[in-house]
Write a structure and sequence with these properties.
Aminopeptidase; transferase; 4 helices; alpha+beta
């Protein structure tokens, strides 16, 4: 594991929330429209366990990115599939942090017995699409105009990786 990556602690929740809220307010990386409070993110945090990990990237004592594996769907037949999310503080983009987080979360997914990792990406999030392709994710679905954010309809792309 990269020396800057570790399992997230509840004390990281404020920074994780700040990173996520910036993406909500400024990008289509998240399909949320409204920012979240720390209380709202506490339930999400609690959903992550040893099988569905939440990891952070820390530089000089500051959390600057995070990645998670979440339940893909609640039906038991989906237990071998998970959904990946990765967010990096916008002030730390283009430093290899996202790449390091993806490498580690894929490894954890494999170690935890998952067969497939899914990522749901806005069709206009070209950087995310390209980094997913570099890791071997392939497009497996394209749903047109199913999200509405920033005054326009967005297409959702589903990418998958067999691990």
């Amino acid at each position: 594991m990269d020396k800057n990556i570790r399992k997230a602690n509840v004390s990281d929740l404020a920074r994780i929330t700040d990173i996520y809220n910036w993406a909500v307010e400024n990008t289509t990386a998240s399909f949320d429209i409204n920012s979240h409070t720390i209380e709202q993110r506490t339930e999400w945090f609690a959903e992550h366990d040893d099988r569905h990990p939440l990891i952070v990237y820390e530089l000089e004592g500051k959390v600057v990115g995070y990645a998670s594996l979440s339940e893909f769907r609640s039906k038991e037949a989906y237990d071998s599939t998970c959904e990946m999310s990765v967010y990096v503080d916008h002030e730390y983009h283009n430093r290899g942090i996202g790449k390091a987080l993806i490498e580690e979360i894929i490894k954890l997914g494999k170690d935890n017995g998952f067969h497939v990792i899914i990522s749901v990406i806005s069709a206009d999030n070209y950087i995310s699409i390209e980094i997913h392709k570099k890791f071997g994710f392939v497009l497996c679905g394209d749903i047109k105009q199913v999200a509405f954010k920033f005054g326009r309809y967005l297409d959702c792309l589903f990418y998958q990786l067999f691990i």
